[in-house]
Amino acid sequence: MRNRRLLALTLSGFALMTACASPASTASDSTASAIAPGQATAAFEDKYLFMEEVEGERALTWVRAQNQRSLAHLEADPRYAGLNEDALAIVRATDRLTFGGYVEGFVTNFWQDATHVRGIWRRAQFDSWRGGTPQWETVLDVDALARAEGKNWVFQGASCDRPVDYWNGRCLVRLSDGGKDANVLREFDLRTRTFVDGGFSVPEAKSNSTWEDADSILLGTDWGPGTMTESGYPYIVKRLDRGQALGEAVEVFRGEPSDVSAGAYRIDDGERFHTLFYRSPTFFTSETHYLKPDGSVVKLPLPSKHSIVGIRGGLVYFSTQEAWTPAGGRAIPTGSLVVAPLAQMLAASGTVDYRVIYAPGPREALQGASLSQTGLYVSLTRNVKSEVRRYTLGADGRWTHQRVALPENGVASVADVDVRSDRSFFSYNDMITPPSILMAQTPADAPQTVQAQPARFDASNLEVHQYEATSKDGTKVPYFVVHKKGLTLNSETPTLLYGYGGFEIPMLPTYGSYVGKMWLERGGAYVLANIRGGGEFGPEWHQAGLKGNRQVIFDDFIGVAEDLIRKRITSPRRLGAMGGSNGGLLMGVMLTQRPDLFNAVVVQVPLLDMLRYDRLLAGASWVDEYGDPDNPAERPFLERISPYQNLRARPDMPKPFFVTSTKDDRVHPAHARKFAARMEELGMPFLYYENIDGGHSAAANLVEGARRRALEFTYLSQQLMD
């Protein structure tokens, strides 16, 4: 499912994840305006604009001093060494799930361990893998490549040129220096396991690419001055033939400089490829254009908010993220899965027969869809718990479905399915059940477990509950709690509350190895909040908190915190909060609006200066989510909620821990730097750690990731358990 969420600031409930957008930072304005809640607008002098120079010596001198101070404090704690060992044991475990995908009789995956901290792309014959004795063959060793080239390479995936005879083809491998979103593209030969001498090679940029045939690619990249959007992404796509220099590529599609991005991709319908172009005028709106065999390009008649699922049998499958009434047709609800004939969509005139396959019911949301050879798998959530269905089209033109026999009350999803086969793989996990992979050889088969990860923590004495809090406007907001069985409700349980609340990203009740081992086993409780702004209940749940309505997201999180206190699960003395990226903004707002509720706040790779966020890296692409600081109608709300401008010295402020990364080219590290520097100026305590190498996940490899988690849980132990 080609999803807008691939451009979002994405974090899981248990670990920082990646995926979003970005433009170049500037530091032109010396002042901005700020307004504290309930106060008049006052001039705000930004003393810390120098922090916006990512690798400026003055900024990095401050960063190194803060790192030294904070690391000395946290690593001296007797608990740190044990927590770090716990985290390292998880990342180094050799009994993790090894299923990445199924390709032509082989299981493939990307594997990292103590020896391969950057990782290896590898394969094993499926039968041996299923039998538990896989003989892994290395396809690409990223550690060896990094050593040979003196680079801090991070593997960001590969796109390959053929669905059949895959292992005799070639791939475009994406490599990032230090985990940045920007990467280099290099052509890689799967037969020889080497990079192609003189093959396709694209310098570092936030590129997008797809194969057109074995000797041509469609490429969006930085073609020179004026060829990137304000958000820092390509808007011009060119055809690059084998042997051509970048300057010789021929333009085939373009968007506008004001767009978020534009690019190309192709879809396999089981018999041949279809090439499509996308143009995203804003973060949440898009156009899909179809490349016809004669070379002409046709814009498909689709709603402005949609995601393409696939093409099969002459039909285009897509989902809607808005209510839509096509010309001459019936109204289609928000969050529906729809199908229409491609030939009709390409015709210059006439009506299109749009058919709704699935429309969400109350407290229900479409989470994904995938085509197999003869069916359509739909993943959905009901009250934030998952279900997978298989839909088929009958001879009478009607769609029917059967529920796939997967465990209930957790997170079930499609792990891999192929439009050229009916073999299907699924995954399941919940907050105390480790993930497993299940397979159905044919649609008639009940999925059987083919691999299960051993437990990473003792869950025998844990229980999971789902509750609802009431937000300020009366909205019921669900949340999950994991704690010890028979918990004494005395307000003394150290509790960590996690939230995100943005970009239609659902926070699902997944298994958390680190939280389980480093927090739950030690007597803490963990809470996952399903606040508005996310995708737990579809597009409308997300859109309820857009722009000037965003306070409802913050109120939802506050409502969950207050409900935990009301239930006597915990108290402000024992309650901590954590969130990253967009969730980092949420944490900043908690520090400025309701610091009295928390005694610990972990602020990961955050947005905090909401009056300049659109000038920093990828910020311009998120105006659709947050509002435009330069728009007189939208700026006042941003002034009221922007954490950086609204920071005040107050006695009930907890000591927060900021975690960010110098190499993050998505959310600028200046957000965390500037906020922490203001706290320093105001004489308020805080801890700060900026990874000099990591990208938006604040870690360039698994070992660095383990260290970050050990630091975070040491801090949480100090604040909430001591």
Task: Give a short summary of the structure.
The chain is α+β, with helices and mostly antiparallel strands. 19% of the residues lie in helices and 32% in strands. A hairpin with a 5-residue loop joins strand 32 (462-470) and strand 33 (476-484).
Write a structural description.
This protein is of the alpha+beta class and 722 residues long. The chain has a domain at 493-721: Alpha/Beta hydrolase fold, catalytic domain (Rossmann fold, 3-Layer(aba) Sandwich), CATH 3.40.50. It is built from 14 helices and 39 strands. The chain has an 8-stranded mixed β-sheet with strand order 32-33-35-34-36-37-38-39, with helices on both faces. Strands 7, 8, 9, 10 and 11 form a 5-stranded antiparallel β-sheet that branches. β30 and β31 form a beta hairpin. α2 packs antiparallel against α6 (513-520) and α2 (78-92) runs antiparallel to α14. The radius of gyration is 25 Å and the shape is globular. The model is unreliable at 1-41 (pLDDT under 50).
Q: What is the fold's blueprint, element by element?
A:
Layout: E1 31-34, E2 42-45, H1 57-75, H2 78-92, E3 101-103, E4 106-111, E5 120-125, H3 126-130, E6 137-141, H4 142-149, E7 153-160, E8 170-177, E9 183-189, E10 194-195, E11 201-205, E12 208-213, E13 216-220, E14 236-241, E15 250-254, E16 261-268, E17 273-280, E18 287-291, E19 297-299, E20 306-312, E21 315-320, E22 337-341, H5 342-346, E23 355-358, E24 364-371, E25 376-382, E26 385-393, E27 399-403, E28 411-417, E29 424-430, E30 433-440, E31 448-452, E32 462-470, E33 476-484, E34 495-498, H6 513-520, E35 525-529, H7 539-543, H8 551-566, E36 575-580, H9 582-593, E37 600-604, H10 623-626, H11 635-641, H12 643-646, E38 657-661, H13 670-681, E39 687-691, H14 702-721
Parallel strand pairs: 34-35, 34-36, 36-37, 37-38, 38-39
Antiparallel strand pairs: 1-2, 3-4, 4-5, 5-6, 7-8, 8-9, 9-10, 9-11, 12-13, 13-14, 14-15, 16-17, 17-18, 18-19, 20-21, 21-22, 22-23, 24-25, 25-26, 26-27, 28-29, 29-30, 30-31, 32-33, 33-35
Helix pairs in contact: 2-6, 2-14
